Here is the input.
Amino acid sequence: MTPQKSRPAGATYATTRSNDTPIDRVLHRLDKVKRTAPDKWIACCPAHDDKRPSLSVKQADDGKVLLICRSGCGVAEIVGALNLEMSDLFPGDRRSLKDHGTGPMRRPFDYRDCLTGIAHEATVARLIIEAVNRGEAMDAESLDRLALAEERIDDALRAAGGVQ
Ligand SMILES: [Zn+2]
Here is the structure.
């Protein structure tokens, strides 16, 4: 898997093969990708001015892609900067994901995006817990990331109207 170093400006990837995987979609759009483990990479974060690669990319067992920026960029910002959608991080047919539930009316709040974001945060938490379960020490970075996951889920709840 080699990252595309140069790509035409403003290129759209609407014709992306439907059999590509979430990790391919993401890695092909990132710069300075370096593989650090069979299922882990680091790259420059596209959502902030990243001089030193600080975006960690992980592929979960089920094919989901996790994006964790050490500077704290949200996954939605990173996905947006890559010209992708949240659903691109999940395996499956993108078209059906996109078309599903898209009615003629524009909804002010996109529950699907919101839930996808929550699913991502839950997976992040699971991976951290799995690492601890394997005997890896819980470092400050992981603790911070867990706190951030909680914060983002709280934000999503608030955006959805909060608790009654
Ligand atoms: Zn970032």
User: Anything to note?
Assistant: The chain is about 40% helix and 15% strand. The pocket of zinc ion is lined by residues 45, 47-48, 50, 69, 71, 73 (CB under 6 Å).
